[in-house]
């Protein structure tokens, strides 16, 4: 059994994650930066429709090409992404970037945050090359401005590592993850759900290049943090347990793997995410571990369940086509 993949650049559920103390960036459970509200404050009752009305009014009055207009676009983009419309969010962020660029204001802390949000939604829409270029531009900007050694910088490097890994350059991805890890240690933010996501990504990447001892060390540290912070019972937690189980199965520790796969199975079953490609992968891994542990009857049942879900997924895909 191999560790199948690093965590994706964006969680499959486009929800806002938990903001850290800066309030400038958010991160979802699988280690991806989410676009957050920019510096312009809004009360809790502000709705997407009111934001859109404001943007339309500024556009009609030819006042959108201003910093205030760009921040309104960024706010609306964050709202669109939160509601799951990544394509609209990308369009709004692109327009905001254009305004910042035309005003000569992109080389700023606000510009760095905007670019990071744009990269996140580019990843969400599958534009991984675009996301990678945007994150690299953000890295250059943050480095030049001396604002990389921050929590936001750690978010950026984690996303850059995930984007780089998705393009096949795992060694470079590991470098970015290691740099992000160093910043989290310095800023005392490793023992957080975001730190756990970073360690999970780093461990998965280490496993994919064959460094299983380092992979297991990082993955188990991530697991400890998720248990302490109460964030294990999420899709990211199930994936983390699956990866640790895979590492143990690689070392022929089938009993240890079986315990972890079973816990991941329960999380996915309770959370309704077992009926998925990841759920099928988990069921097959669980069955193989059961074979290794001598539990052939249970293995046969889980192999059959995996096949049944796989067929249902294919049927659903065929009906859409």
UniProtKB/TrEMBL annotation:
Instruction: Name the Gene3D superfamilies for this protein.
Output: Tetratricopeptide repeat domain (1.25.40.10)
Q: Does the keyword Metal-binding apply?
A: no
> What keywords are annotated for this sequence in UniProt?
TPR repeat
Superkingdom of origin organism: Eukaryota
One Pfam family matching this protein? TPR_12
Q: Where are the TPR repeats?
A: 70-103, 112-145, 154-187
Q: Which SUPFAM superfamilies match?
A: TPR-like
InterPro entries registered for this protein in UniProt: TPR-like_helical_dom_sf, TPR_rpt
Q: What is this protein called?
A: MalT-like TPR region domain-containing protein
Question: What species was this sequence derived from?
Answer: Noctiluca scintillans (Sea sparkle)
Lineage, please?
Answer: Eukaryota, Sar, Alveolata, Dinophyceae, Noctilucales
